[in-house]
Amino acid sequence: MSEISEIRTDVLVIGGGNAALCAAISARRKGAEVLVVEAAPKFYRGGNTRHTRNLRCAHDQGNEILTGPYPEDEFHDDLMRVTGGQTDPDLARFTIAQSKELWDWMTEAGVRFQKPLGGTLNLGRTNAFFLGGGRAMLNALYDTAENLGVQIRYDSAATELDIEDGAFRSALIDTPEGPLRVHSRAVVAAAGGFEANIDWLREYWGDRAENFLIRGTPYNRGSLLRQLLDAGMQPVGDPTQCHAVAIDARAPQFDGGIVTRLDCIIFGIVLNNDCKRFYDEGEDFWPKRYAIWGRLVADQPDQIAYIVFDDKAIGRFMPSVFPAIEAPTLRELAEKLELDPAKFEATVQGFNAAVVDGTFNTDELDDCRTEGLEPPKSHWARRIDTPPYYAYPVRPGITFTYLGTRVNREARILTNDGRPSANIYAAGEIMAGNVLGKGYLAGIGMTIGAVFGRVAGEGAARHVRN
């Protein structure tokens, strides 16, 4: 057994992504000595932040990037729609109100924004896109934190928490130099969910979990979350709920990132491996529906489906890093997908026959729909009749899980008896289930992380001063 080294600091931040860095910067600006421990090596630092593109923020007027106002009430309506009301109403309102400060805060922290992407995203008014993507945004936050004097250790996983009567005392950290005991007067838990822990996912999903692909880091295994729950912290969220999108089935099991996500569903139809459609591909705007498709595919046989479209859709969406499967006829496309050609053709022809012509427009809920078809396609329905024909095979791509720790407005974790912990704070995916009971709204994961990261960091520093 290696000898355990010991150090002391004011605030220990466990995690290395958006929420963790926002907490570290905020605590340091309030005068606290801060140590960040990140389980991943430096190259893979940042968890799922590495793969993000934007954050959603309420604002009263547009600017050089955001194309118009996005009032708090509209943001709230959007959140209620995607969650079906499954959210803590107080924390939802709090998150949205605090999001109005994120543009200025991020800019002051060195983050730069760019004009929004087009296509199916429709986010130019509601979301701020990071110039250079999530990794550039993350690099800016790390630079700011280090320039402020925040200490950062990589390859350093928290393996044991010393918590007594709801108060944090210390953490045992596994580092390349050996075990390290960190004593601190406050701790911020910001180490993400358990989406990379297939065994844990299997507890809720059964054997289906074996066919899940993990869009982000393989380091988000939920170790910190498990330790907090075992120590008497109150859980929140349905363990079967998660941010799950349809991603290219040819993606690697871990860390495929944003380039494997497919945004072309509204341009075609989606079939399972029995050549049956199973959901309305044109139900609503893509940013409000893209995160339901992973769960939908998870419920299909063998957890696989196929997005089918024709030449009219090419160039209208951001493609996968893998090329679409192409064929001159529907029958040949089915054969390439190893699907029953007769069933495949019958489903596409049945869809084509049900299409009601209208004015196709992805910027609005248009009048291109189907009639007499179950499930319907409510908008953006066009016949798949222009060769060549294309398809993408897709599997559930899990971004992050919603089971987490319950918090209050101060980002303090609540214990099982409902008391706020003395000095234990949480931010990011590890507490996102407070706001996201189910469903997802594009960019809100970054919003939750940044809002509660700032609150947690400031609260931890305030606790240290007092």
List the helices and strands and how they pair.
Layout: E1 5-14, H1 18-29, E2 34-37, E3 54-56, H2 72-83, H3 89-99, H4 102-108, E4 113-114, E5 127-130, H5 133-148, E6 151-153, E7 157-164, E8 167-175, E9 178-189, H6 198-205, E10 213-214, H7 223-230, E11 235-236, E12 242-248, E13 269-272, H8 293-298, E14 305-310, E15 325-327, H9 330-336, H10 341-354, E16 355-356, E17 369-370, E18 389-401, E19 404-405, E20 412-414, E21 420-426, H11 444-465
Parallel strand pairs: 1-2, 1-9, 2-6, 9-21, 10-18
Antiparallel strand pairs: 3-5, 4-5, 7-8, 8-9, 11-19, 12-18, 13-14, 14-18, 15-18, 16-17, 20-21
Compact summary:
The protein is α+β, with helices and mostly antiparallel strands and 466 residues long. It contains eleven helices and 21 strands. The longest helix is centred in the C-terminal third of the chain and has 22 residues, at 444-465.
**For the record, what is the CATH homologous superfamily label of the largest domain?**
FAD/NAD(P)-binding domain
Mean pLDDT over the full residue set: 96
What share of the residues does DSSP label as strand, in percent? 15-25%
**Overall body shape:** elongated
- What is the fold named in CATH at topology level of the largest domain? FAD/NAD(P)-binding domain
Individual helix count: 11
Q: Which range best describes the helical content: under 10%, 10-25%, 25-40%, 40-55%, 55-70% or over 70%? A: 25-40%
Please write the CATH class name of the largest domain: Alpha Beta
What count of domains describes the coordinates? Answer: 2
- The strand count comes to 21
Question: Runs with pLDDT <50, length 5+?
Answer: none
What structural category arises from helix and sheet content?
alpha+beta
Largest sheet: 8 strands, mixed
